Recover the amino acids of this structure.
């Protein structure tokens, strides 16, 4: 069965790996790509998505729509240039695409896709949840049309990456994330508990470049080049050597094969206040928990299997 996926992202080195994995996966149809502020501006993210599609031979095949340039509260902040580079893809220059972005309000675009693929569409969220929260606000019946939401974000039982207990996608727009986890739909969060425990190694990327199908070589060479920058960022941020965390691609893998993770459903809210905890994912296991909906959290991962799933699509 072909999975229909809409990717909302902020490309982003790891976002680009997730997009490429989905593109080459035979059981996935990408219904559209939307972008929001995060690693770069939404406009730059959309430009990156267009160029990645062109590189993969998918120019004009998948619509791309740029969305929110600020959080739901109207805030902007500095981009993490030391992780994703100035242009978001490790400062690698890709050839321009002739494809143009869809000139629509991103909420209208997302809602139209939800109607087109009613009860079939899986939303894979790889950045802040601003576009999705805005769509929920604009279209009250939106959540009922969606099959599932799989989101890279949060840190449940581990430390954060932008605050002591806060992960970037949730910390970047906590109010938006709280709207998303409170909506009436099936949400799975793929957080740092599993993405930090899955290490993408340069050695494996280089091997993949050697042994891949001929048509995949340009995209893997691109991945290798942008990962050189990203892994240097992982060295500075996490003291990792010759490898990096596997954030957004792991979320995409969970969307197509949930068997790579062990999960638990917990009542969940997002902390929207707090000097040190704004953006923390709060889960409540008590008998009489806080008010909130159940969200599925990924707590453990079979990282070998997840990485094999990733590389398999290029073989
Ligand atoms: O915390 C990791 C997340 O933040 C990833 O989605 C990465 O692309 C950045 O946006
Ligand atoms: Ca991302």
């Amino acid at each position: 069965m072909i999975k229909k996926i809409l990717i909302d992202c902020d490309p982003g080195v790891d976002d680009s790996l997730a997009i490429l994995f989905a593109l080459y996966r035979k059981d996935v149809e990408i219904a559209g790509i939307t972008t929001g502020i995060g690693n770069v501006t939404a406009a730059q993210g959309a430009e990156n998505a267009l160029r990645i599609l062109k590189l993969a031979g998918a120019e004009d095949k998948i619509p791309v729509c740029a969305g929110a340039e600020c959080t739901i509260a109207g805030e902007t902040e500095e981009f993490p240039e030391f992780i994703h580079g100035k242009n978001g893809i490790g400062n690698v220059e890709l050839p321009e695409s002739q494809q143009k972005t869809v000139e629509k309000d991103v909420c209208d675009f997302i809602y139209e896709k939800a109607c087109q693929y009613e009860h079939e569409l899986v939303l894979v969220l790889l950045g802040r949840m601003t576009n999705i929260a805005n769509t929920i606000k604009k279209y009250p019946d939106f959540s009922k049309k969606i099959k599932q939401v799989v989101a890279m974000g949060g840190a449940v039982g581990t430390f954060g990456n932008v605050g002591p207990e806060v992960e970037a996608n949730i910390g970047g727009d906590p109010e938006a994330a709280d709207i998303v986890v409170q909506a009436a739909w099936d949400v799975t969060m793929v957080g740092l508990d599993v993405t930090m425990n899955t290490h993408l190694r340069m050695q494996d990327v280089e091997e993949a470049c050697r042994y891949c199908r001929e048509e995949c070589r340009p995209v893997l060479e691109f991945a290798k080049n942008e990962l050189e920058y990203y892994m240097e960022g992982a060295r500075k941020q996490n003291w990792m050597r010759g490898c990096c965390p596997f954030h957004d691609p792991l979320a995409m893998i969970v969307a197509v094969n949930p068997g790579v993770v062990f999960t638990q459903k917990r009542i969940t809210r997002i902390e929207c206040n707090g000097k040190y905890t704004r953006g923390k994912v709060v889960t409540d296991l008590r008998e009489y928990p806080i008010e909130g909906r159940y969200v599925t959290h990924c707590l453990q991962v079979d990282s070998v299997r997840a990485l094999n799933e990733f590389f398999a699509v290029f073989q």
